[in-house]
Design goal:
The complex is a heterodimer of chains A (about 110) and B (about 325).
Chain A lengths: L1 H25 L2 E2 H9 L8 H13 L3 E8 L2 E9 L1 H25 L4
Antiparallel strand pairs in A: 1-3, 2-3
Helix pairs in contact in A: 1-4, 2-3
Chain B lengths: L9 H17 L2 H18 L6 H11 L9 H12 L4 H9 L8 E3 L6 E3 L1 H7 L17 H25 L6 E6 L5 E6 H24 L4 H25 L9 H33 L30
Antiparallel strand pairs in B: 1-2, 3-4
Helix pairs in contact in B: 1-2, 1-3, 5-9, 7-8, 7-9, 7-10, 8-9, 9-10
The chains are: A alpha+beta (about 110), B mainly alpha (about 325).
């Protein structure tokens, strides 16, 4: 059981970057908004302690960029947007992910 | 941090394996085991499970190629210099002492082994700054803020000089230079020697800080240099005060040294980070926004997202 948990954790970590890029491609978001949006998917739920280092890494890699924007309910917030390089990376990763999912569905059949 | 390179994704693991294989090929058999162990530990310390191949490549480029150890004096000296990696210390110190995006309070030391306190994570937990207040810490901090920050070690040097100028004649002919754990002095030096040591220990760092503030080096490098200068200057200035307190044991004085240094360095780095945040806000929203608070919405507003406290920062 513990091995299955560890494997699940690694699987989630592996797709997290893809999930964040996907959300940011849909619309610019700020850090805690990403945490909230991902928490709607329990298997992808993360904390602020995970999302900010991830955003910093994506920014260093040139896949996202950030801009401060006024907020109607408090101090300004920093919004993250996918760069053209980020879109290319997302497209490639999404294609690969789709292939893997299709292959696994073929292998595992109709197993729940 | 990961426990093993097995935690990496296959593509990232391949980059790490290539680096270790190349290192092994360069090393004599007797050095291979311990060096590869050290490299693997260093990689695991600096990487996360979701680190991509580009991140691993960046890290191994930072480590540089592995050179077999020789035994001549020249080779030994080169190894010592390489181990200390004095180049880029400022930048490494800044990224270790101030990394608000990383919630860990203790990070592997910028220089040597052990752990450094991540003051950026402390500031986030206290609600003083957002984890992502700056795209890259200190990269957008304006020149004026660096010059202002360099005034801290400069003021410490001036205060130390003033201390000996004003109180010098009233001080005893010999002053403590070493204390026991209980804060009781157990070694002494002459007053002129103590004064010369304390002045050098504050004036030299102040010089480095002023030079960094006026340089055109990258912001993180300048911030790290000023932080180190502030750390050395504040400890030395505090020791100058401690020496003048007499020979009675003062158990609180040793821990106070750490508090003084941490407070001084934290204030400097926080000020520089706030200046960088203000510069980013001004760039994106106009100069009126530069002083935007970090605090939560004013009373009466409905908060729609988790508040920015206790490490659960908001962007």
């Amino acid at each position: 059981m513990r091995e299955a948990d560890a494997w699940g954790s690694q699987l989630r970590k592996g797709v997290l970057e893809l999930a964040v890029l996907g959300l940011l491609e849909a619309e610019p978001r700020y850090g805690s908004q990403l945490v909230d949006d991902l928490s709607a998917h329990p298997d992808l739920a993360i904390t602020a302690g995970t999302v900010y280092p991830l955003l910093a890494r994506l920014a260093r890699a040139g896949l996202v960029t950030s801009t401060w924007r006024e907020s109607p309910v408090g101090p300004p917030r920093k919004y993250y947007t996918v760069t053209p390089a980020g879109r290319r990376s997302l497209a490639e990763s999404a294609r690969l992910f789709g292939s893997v999912v299709a292959a696994m569905e073929t292998i595992l059949g109709g197993r729940p | 941090m990961i426990r093993s390179l097995d935690d990496l994704q296959p593509a990232a693991r391949a980059v790490a394996d290539d680096y270790l294989r190349e290192a092994a090929a360069r090393l004599p058999v007797r050095q291979r085991g311990p060096v590869l162990d050290d490299l693997t530990t260093a990689l695991c310390t600096r990487l996360e499970a979701d680190s991509g191949p580009a991140v691993v490549a960046e890290l191994v480029a930072e480590f540089g190629p592995v050179v077999p150890a020789g035994n001549s004096w020249g080779e030994r000296l080169r190894r010592i210099a390489g181990g200390l990696r004095l180049t880029g210390v400022g930048e490494r110190v800044a990224s270790t002492w101030w990394n608000p995006a990383d919630e860990r309070l203790l990070l592997p030391r910028a220089l040597g082994t052990g752990w450094d306190l991540n003051l950026g994570a402390v500031a986030v937990r206290l609600g003083l700054i957002e984890p992502d207040a700056e795209a890259e810490p200190f990269a957008a901090t304006p020149d004026g803020a660096f010059r202002a920050a360099a005034l801290v070690p400069t003021a410490l040097a001036a205060a130390t000089a003033l201390h000996y100028a004003v109180r010098g004649r009233a001080l005893p002919a010999r002053l403590p230079t070493h204390w026991t754990v209980a804060g009781a002095p157990d070694r002494w030096v002459s007053l002129p020697r103590a004064a010369a040591t304390d002045l050098a220990g504050t004036v030299v760092p102040a010089g480095f800080a002023l030079a960094a503030a006026r340089s055109s080096r990258p912001g993180p490098d300048r911030a790290g240099t000023i932080a180190v200068a502030t750390a050395v200057g504040s400890v030395t200035a505090w020791v100058a005060v401690w020496r003048s307190l007499g020979d009675r044991p003062r158990p609180w004085a040793g821990p106070a040294t750490v508090v003084v240094m941490t407070g001084a360095v934290g204030t400097v780095l926080y000020g520089l980070a706030r200046a960088g945040r203000a510069a980013e806000l001004s760039r994106d929203l106009g100069s009126d926004a530069a002083t935007a608070p970090v605090t939560e919405s004013p009373p009466g507003f409905i908060e729609v997202h988790p508040p920015f406290t206790g490490g659960r920062g908001r962007g």
